[in-house]
Amino acid sequence: MLKKSLAVALVLMLVAGLLAGCGQQSSQQQGGEQKQAKEIAFTIGAEVPSLDPQKATDTYAILIGHHIFEGLVRVHNGQVQPGIAEKWEVSEDKTTYTFHLRDAKWSDGKPVTAYDFEYAIKRLLDPNTASEYAFQGYYILNGEEYNKGKITDPNQIGVKALDEKTLQIKLKVPVKYFESLLSFISFMPVRKDFVEQMGDKFAADADKLLYNGPFILKEWKHEQELVLEKNPNYWNKDAIKIDKVTIYVVNDANTAYQMYENGETDWEYIPAELVEQLDKEGKAKYFYDGAVFYLQFNVKREGKPWLANENFQRAIGFAIDREALIKSVLKGVSDPATRYVLPLLAGLEKTFVEEYPYEFYSKNADVAKAKEYLQKAMKELNISDPSKMTFEYLTDDTQRAKLTAEFIQDQLKKNLGINMTIKQVPFKQRLELMTKMDYDVVFAGWGPDYNDPMTYLDLWVTGGGHNDTGWSNKQYDELIQFAKTTTDFKKRADAMFEAEKLLLEKGPIVPIYFRQRAWVCNDRIKGLVTDFIGATFDFVYADVQE
Amino acid sequence: MQTSNSAITKEMFEHVGKNVSQMEAIARPSITYWQDAWRRLKQNKVAMLGLVIIILYTVLAIVGPYMTPYDYRTTNTEEIDQPPSAKHWFGTDTLGRDLWARTWMGARVSLSIGFLAAFLNAFIGVIIGGISGYFGGKVDMVIMRAIDILYAIPYMIIVILMMVVLGQGIMPLVIAMIAVGWLNMARLVRGQVLQLKEQEFVLAAKVLGASHARIIFKHLIPNALGVILVNLTMSVPSAIFTEAFLSFIGLGVVPPHSSWGQLAYYGIQSFRVRPYQLFIPAFFISTTMLSLNLLGDGLRDALDPRLRS
Amino acid sequence: MGRYILNRLFVSLVTAWVLVTIVFFLVRLLPGDPFLSEKVTPEIKANMMRYYGLDKPIHIQYMTFLKNLLKGDFGYSLRYKNRTVNEVIKQAFPYSADLGIRAVIFATIVGVTLGIIAALNRNRTWDYLAMFIAIVGVSVPSFVIGPLLQYVFATKLNLLPVSQWKGFSYTIMPTFALSLSSLALMARLMRASMLDVVNQDYIKTAKAKGLSPFQIIWKHQIRNAILPVITVLGPVTATLLTGTFVIEQIFAIPGLGKFYILGIQNLDYSLVLGMTTFYGLFLIAANFVVDIIYGLVDPRIRIAR
């Protein structure tokens, strides 16, 4: 018996010694010694529809593109860093940018040149490319005109490679956020000869793409997994610690979470129902994903004049208990939207919200105020019974959308005596009904395209491409127009704030919440960054420490 | 045999006349086919249990929501996700709504969808399958090709399309389900009829001059009833499941309605922390299926003329 | 016989044409269009419509579609932008087929066996047990059974992998979950049919001839009783091959099933059309085969013909 336990103890000591040895070996990495590969894994919720930089639109392509491509600049943790462009100059009027490129290579060993960027931007704007995100290039001189077929000569577009290492971009008007915009996937370079050689098959598989980012796509098993490997040709490869990344395609959120629990992946979103428990254990982390959700009123709806009534809209806005909605429907994940602009968006020095603090709605329902507004609305509309002011609430067909709808329905009935019916339709049908303005009130959301409040605010100008409300306010249009053209960024911010206040007081929009996502991450992963624009998870500079 | 000399005379016989009442007398009391089936079903305790459960659930679906003071739509954020208690018998859901009320409101939807769709499917399927199998030849050809075409269009397209065309709700759902739901039954009945129509009793009926309709509906289909019933009991759950599946992809019934399928779908997301939210609707779905199956079995035995003793 | 097959072939082709025509116009009736998105503007959408030839009059699109169909070309997917529908099907269908066929085989073997056991032990413990198993199978929706299996066997017991399709151990839970409802259907049909057959005259004849019980059960009872099972085998195979969506979704299997729902949700016309046509032709062929098998198994049908 004694012998046995002695043996066990010896074995244990031996194992412990080995483990310690392993640890030392990996921390005191010396050249020539066998290094343990650093591998990480995570899941994405759907197959990537396309990794063609100029055709990609979905969040997973943006996430992966962030790691396999590199544009003129790289945005990491909200900061603009030099990318393929080593340095750049901006002209006095802030409309001409001149970028100087560093020595960088494609994954096939050829240099990345300014011509590749010029080609990529022209490709993005070419109507024959049929790029959904072509609008990202509309800031560039003549970009919009070319894409809409108003001019046909691509050489009129304000982008030109002066030589192999110098790229010049001319803008229509000064754009404060233009540098960070350049890190967006649509602006990633592609090489003409390669694209033309591949033809229709370009970007269809791992070997039909060229890479110039920190990683290369080694393998792409459609609907199954993507494997990334460290790019040995990357100009900044010494800063990259991870050797291999496996990305599994898993549609079901619960399945994905169980894979994390079983140690198959390193980070994962938490299914709503499990958040509470993980929050108690202190494991849950949260980040804003950029989307703001709101009720949008169709002010041109015939037979329902109350939808266009500002006081009726405010009454609805004050009658909804945002905090209770988040607590019950969203299990505490997300922030009540008491204003319209997301708290994270950049202002002049700090965030816009810090520089311009404002709260229009309250976190909880303000029934007294809501009733006051309702009384005003009823007087204006000459209606005596609030239950006559019915409307149909249009929403998506997901479970959370349904719960949100049922919650709001009950709140309006309880607090104001207003009856609303719920219409649930598939996503694309909702968009079509919105485009055709065939709805009463819709629960909609908007994610930012760039780090600036303008991404939300310019939606609601008269005749705006996404203004499906029929709302038109001259003062609002003027404020936005001024903000878009002025070179004085302080005055620009003031104008945007005025516009936001105007929208909240009179506009057809009632913000409900700023969406957050809850997630968990393995402790061994260091330096993983989340972002609300671009790549949701940025592991470019991440590391693994066992 | 040796009494050959005694002649048989007329006097030895007596005219009794027509005794109508005795001529038609039957030793056992007269009962119809369905009375007999009911009698034998009653003897089958397991099947009766199934019947009782179905009736119980139906009754509860009607009165259940009124047995508690809580409305199935009223949210209460002070009481979200409460486990079952004296106050909320089945607990509350994620919006603090009473699950007892919701379960029985859901039962209304699930049961009506299940029964309506199954019976309509069976009705259409039996008629079309019967005609197709009985007449054979060109009629069969045309019907079977039509069925082949409908079969080849996946179910979901039809369902989604119908839901969009007709608007959302329970009836569009049922109509969408029966649009192609009868195909299975039609094929099955056709197969049975093909088999049965070659049998002697059909030939006998034909010889006696029975009409086609009479042969189909009086001879062939009653004989195929066993298989039809088994299929019918299977198609109630499958209709309830189709609704549940549609909930899974976001096309189920819409508010204010809910269904067992939707409750279970929500429950599956929360069962790790709040098992009752899954197990209560799952229990009712399962026991409904179980009861229907037991009842179907009992009915099958009771209706089969060959098992009569 | 040759003429019969030729005739059937012609009919099948007409069926196929009617099918693709119906589906071609059906998908266009779905509300919305493929390039609707939150960010798209009308001009950009027009570019995209033009790029994919969707701006042309519908009858020209239809003719183009038929022409390409004859060449076996379904065109490019509207969502998976650099991939053709043929590629998507070629890559994903083997997974669905693998899963579906495993489920059909499992369901048939276990279902028929359960049905036979139940019928031979009518109203005894084995009957009840077999039918209980069968009923449990139809009683729980697959979107419930899938996650429960995962939770118990993968997360809690750590016996099987949570998801994906990389080897035998990965196939166990999906196959089981997918086959349950069909298994139950088969078991119950087999039982009902066996009990039907047992009272037929030819069984009595066989008994009178003094055949052994085994021979009676095997040669007469099962062979005749299996007919309804074969009738549903076609549809069941079709259901299992095309109805893999939930299971594929839950177990993260890269099969074709989920493309179908995704295709409809994204209004990916060419993908939906291509898949419907593919499945349609597949089912038409399957029905053809079932008809022939049906004739082979039941001698009475052969005579009648």
Describe the protein.
The complex is a heterotrimer of chains A (546), B (309) and C (305). Chain A is an alpha+beta fold. Chain A is built from 17 helices and 21 strands. In chain A, strands 11, 12, 13, 14, 15, 16 and 17 form a 7-stranded mixed β-sheet that branches. In chain A, strands 1-10-9-8 form a 4-stranded mixed β-sheet, covered by helices on one side. In chain A, helix 9 runs antiparallel to helix 12. The longest helix of chain A is centred in the N-terminal third of the chain and has 26 residues. Chain A starts with a helix and ends with a strand. The N terminus of chain A is likely disordered. The longest helix of chain B has 37 residues. With 305 residues, chain C is an all-alpha fold. Chain C has 14 helices and no strands. The longest helix of chain C is centred in the middle third of the chain and has 36 residues. The interface between B and C is large, with 56 and 60 residues.
Helix count, DSSP H or I runs of 4 or more residues of chain A: 17
Count all strands of chain A and give the number.
21
Shape of chain B: flat
Please give the alpha-carbon distance between the first and last residues of chain B.
42 Å
Based on secondary structure, the structural category of chain A is alpha+beta
What percentage of amino acids of chain B are in beta strands? under 5%
Uncertain stretches of 5 or more adjacent residues of chain B: none
- Rg calc of chain A: 26 Å
Number of strands of chain B: 0
The chain-level structural class of chain B is mainly alpha
Report the C-alpha radius of gyration of chain B, rounded: 28 Å
The DSSP helix count of chain B reads: 12
Helix percentage of chain A = 25-40%
Oligomer: heterotrimer
- Main β sheet profile of chain A: 7 strands, mixed
**Proportion in β-strands of chain A:** 15-25%
Largest interface: B-C, 56 and 60 residues
Largest beta-sheet characterization of chain B: none
